[in-house]
């Protein structure tokens, strides 16, 4: 196909549209209904028939990157990629620039390189999230529980991305296992070892994604606990202030009712005495608050 490097087209690797596949290769498959681009591809998967395999490759939407997907058909003689955009074409061009000294003899080798590229190319984003989480934890410690309105949303986004990573690597690991199981006859021993290694590596990255997701949940709980403690502290202070001024409010209301006869207000010394009573009440309340450790 035009646009594909020669070393790929020499082993019958081809990228075509769905219409071109139906027009040219409909006879290759017993059931062509699997290739339906009107339905979004959400999984990387492979199905094995007696003399061929078919499936889908999927890159999820993570960190502002759009979803990418394609279908494929594979047998011992050809590898056909079916897509409407240029995701796989760009990926194959990258691969071609990296395999100058590798001799390609079978189309399945190209599929292995695609899977390897899909695993390694996304690994850096996983560790970027880990670095951001470490920085966020340090920021939380330095802010001493200060409320950050966007932080809870950030944790939610990280958790969602890491769940997508977990599914992504789990599907790639299962894909490698199935490819190893069903294509033993046409996969060279060295390629089988690589398949097994890629499967284990994808499993490890899946576990890393799960560990990071657990880390996100822990940070989110710590952040929410800090915010809750600060809110409780504020409510505690307001409660103490209300408690301190409640008796004073009672006195103010009592002597502000404007009755004609309030005997204790007649002597000139009554006002200073009332002030002393108020001060005494406040001192007693402060003493009790400290004794009960309500502000600790």
TrEMBL record:
<dbReference type="InterPro" id="IPR045863">
    <property type="entry name" value="CorA_TM1_TM2"/>
</dbReference>
<feature type="transmembrane region" description="Helical">
    <location>
        <begin position="237"/>
        <end position="257"/>
    </location>
</feature>
<keyword id="KW-0472">Membrane</keyword>
<dbReference type="Pfam" id="PF01544">
    <property type="entry name" value="CorA"/>
</dbReference>
<keyword id="KW-0813">Transport</keyword>
<dbReference type="InterPro" id="IPR002523">
    <property type="entry name" value="MgTranspt_CorA/ZnTranspt_ZntB"/>
</dbReference>
<keyword id="KW-1133">Transmembrane helix</keyword>
<dbReference type="GO" id="GO:0005886">
    <property type="term" value="C:plasma membrane"/>
</dbReference>
<comment type="function">
    <text>Mediates influx of magnesium ions. Alternates between open and closed states. Activated by low cytoplasmic Mg(2+) levels. Inactive when cytoplasmic Mg(2+) levels are high.</text>
</comment>
<dbReference type="GO" id="GO:0000287">
    <property type="term" value="F:magnesium ion binding"/>
</dbReference>
<comment type="similarity">
    <text>Belongs to the CorA metal ion transporter (MIT) (TC 1.A.35) family.</text>
</comment>
<keyword id="KW-0406">Ion transport</keyword>
<keyword id="KW-0460">Magnesium</keyword>
<keyword id="KW-1003">Cell membrane</keyword>
<dbReference type="GO" id="GO:0015095">
    <property type="term" value="F:magnesium ion transmembrane transporter activity"/>
</dbReference>
<dbReference type="InterPro" id="IPR045861">
    <property type="entry name" value="CorA_cytoplasmic_dom"/>
</dbReference>
<keyword id="KW-0812">Transmembrane</keyword>
<dbReference type="GO" id="GO:0050897">
    <property type="term" value="F:cobalt ion binding"/>
</dbReference>
<dbReference type="GO" id="GO:0015087">
    <property type="term" value="F:cobalt ion transmembrane transporter activity"/>
</dbReference>
<protein>
    <submittedName>
        <fullName>Magnesium transporter</fullName>
    </submittedName>
</protein>
<feature type="transmembrane region" description="Helical">
    <location>
        <begin position="269"/>
        <end position="289"/>
    </location>
</feature>
């Amino acid at each position: 196909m035009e646009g594909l490097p020669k070393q790929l087209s020499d082993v019958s690797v081809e990228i075509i549209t769905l219409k071109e596949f139906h027009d040219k290769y409909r006879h290759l498959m017993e059931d062509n209904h699997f290739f339906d681009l009107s339905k979004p591809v959400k999984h990387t998967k492979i199905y094995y028939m007696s003399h061929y395999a078919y499936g889908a490759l999927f890159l999820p939407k993570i960190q502002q990157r759009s979803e990418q997907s394609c279908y494929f058909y594979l047998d011992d003689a050809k590898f056909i990629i079916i897509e409407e955009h240029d995701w796989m074409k760009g990926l194959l061009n990258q691969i071609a620039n990296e395999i100058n000294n590798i001799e390609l003899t079978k189309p399945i080798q190209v599929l292995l390189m695609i899977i390897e590229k899909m695993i390694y190319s996304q690994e850096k984003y996983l560790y970027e999230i880990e670095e951001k989480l470490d920085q966020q934890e340090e920021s939380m410690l330095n802010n001493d529980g200060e409320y950050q309105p966007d932080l809870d949303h950030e944790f939610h986004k990280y958790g969602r991305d890491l769940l997508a990573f977990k599914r992504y690597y789990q599907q790639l690991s299962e894909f490698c296992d199935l490819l190893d199981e069903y294509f033993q006859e046409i996969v060279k021993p060295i390629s089988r070892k690589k398949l097994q290694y890629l499967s284990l590596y994808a499993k490890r990255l899946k576990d890393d994604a799960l560990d990071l997701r657990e880390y996100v949940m822990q940070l989110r709980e710590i952040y929410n606990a800090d915010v809750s403690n600060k809110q409780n502290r504020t409510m505690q202070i307001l409660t103490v202030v209300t408690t301190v001024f409640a008796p004073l409010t009672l006195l103010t209301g009592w002597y502000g009712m404007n009755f004609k006869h309030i005997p204790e207000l007649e002597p000139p010394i009554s006002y200073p005495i009332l002030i002393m009573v108020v001060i005494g009440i406040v001192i007693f309340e402060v003493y009790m608050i400290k004794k009960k450790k309500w502000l600790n």
